[in-house]
Amino acid sequence: MPIKNNPYFEQAQKEQWRGDYAAALQYYRQAIQMDPNCGELYWEMAISLIHMGMKEEARAAQEKAAALDPAIKKRWEEIKAKPNKPADIKRLRGEGPAGLAGLLEYALDKEERISEMAFEALEDEEYRVDATNIPLLMETLKTTTDGRLQYKAAKLLGRVGPEAADPVFDLLAHPDDLSEMQVTQTLRALEDMHEPRALPVLLHWFKDTRLNPRAAAFDGLAKLRSPEAVEPLIEMLEAGMPWEEWDVFHNPARLLGELGDLRAFDPLVNLLSSPNTGAIGWAITALGQLGDPRAIAHIKPFLKHEDQYVPEHAAKALEKLKAKT
Q1: Which of 43, 53, 255, 299 is the most exposed place for a label (fewest CB within 10 A)?
Q2: What domains sit in the chain, N to C, each tagged with a CATH number?
């Protein structure tokens, strides 16, 4: 019987298009009772089974359809030969360090959906990497032209920890062989290592003339919380850092306040005369964190500042300072 002459098939198709897969399944089964040797009926029924989460039954229906219809068999064999990329990504993710090479490859997949799935796996905080991954991550850092993958390789090196520090130091020791982006991302690897030996390297790149390497070095110094970062940060403020760079550097005034070194007191007071209200607010906050009572006289006038947020910063800082006196 031609499939189009099967009344149950037509009704099954209507229910399937409507999204009522349970009803469609009933009609498909009735259609198959009328014509049990029609492979197309089993093939179409598998669609409703898949939507209902009945994967094993769906696969059995597809296999039955292939056994009955040579054209479907060819199509089914092509589908089975094609890799199931989402399932493979899930498997690689579960393999931890052993699955890294596969995930990095999938991250460059031409299909955006697959690439995103791979990046999600790599960005999962529970995804494990270890020292065995260092050579592959370093090679990726040096050779890939994909900025996002380069960044992810750097962050994974940071996740490996101090064991990855020496290869990173070696790479940064040859800056003429690196692009600005490679330098920047390699410095990002140091950001998460919490490796004290990285301090002189970060201080060196903090003085680079290019914005991106300096910003990456700054973020690394912020994580280390080293007193040796105080003088370079003060120099940055005293040199009149361009205001458009403040967002990039996540606020050097804030970091000086968190470091709690009184050498920052005068530079922060000087920053209160800035025309930039954001800089004023962070200078006030930093002075409050330093805890020096001399700051009270400098901060009080800002309680009546015309900006919406500066008085709030001033009130909070004064409250902290008064609690310490």
Answers
A1: 53
A2: 3-81 (1.25.40.10), 229-325 (1.25.10.10)
Residue 98 amino acid letter: A
Closest to 172 (Cα-Cα) out of 206, 145, 146: 206
Tell me the per-residue pLDDT of 6-42, one tens digit each, with 9 for 90 and over: 888 889 888 888 889 999 999 999 999 999 999 998 9
Q: pLDDT at position 207, please?
A: 86
CA quadruple 21, 23, 29, 35: dihedral sign: negative
Q: Name the residue with tokens 């899930």.
A: 90
Select the more confidently predicted residue: 160 or 325: 160
pTM above 0.85, yes or no: no
pLDDT, averaged across the chain: 89
3-state secondary structure the chain: CCHHHCHHHHHHHHHHHHCCHHHHHHHHHHHHHHCCCCHHHHHHHHHHHHHCCCHHHHHHHHHHHHHHCHHHHHHHHHHHHCCCHHHHHHHHHHHHHHHHHHHHHHHCCCCHHHHHHHHHHHHCCCCCCCHHHHHHHHHHHHHCCCHHHHHHHHHHHHHHCHHHHHHHHHHHCCHHHCCHHHHHHHHHHHHCCCCHHHHHHHHHHHCCCCHHHHHHHHHHHHHHCCHHHHHHHHHHHHCCCCHHHCCCCCCHHHHHHHHCCHHHHHHHHHHCCCCCHHHHHHHHHHHHHHCCCCHHHHHHHHHHCCCCCHHHHHHHHHHHHHHHC
Q: How confident is the model at residue 140 (pLDDT cuts 50, 70, 90)?
A: very high
* Residue 162 and residue 168 in contact, taking contact as beta carbons nearer than 8 Å: no
pLDDT tens for residues 237-277?
887 766 666 666 557 888 888 888 999 999 999 989 888 88
Please give the backbone phi and psi of residue 238, each rounded to the nearest 5 degrees, phi first. Answer: -70, -20
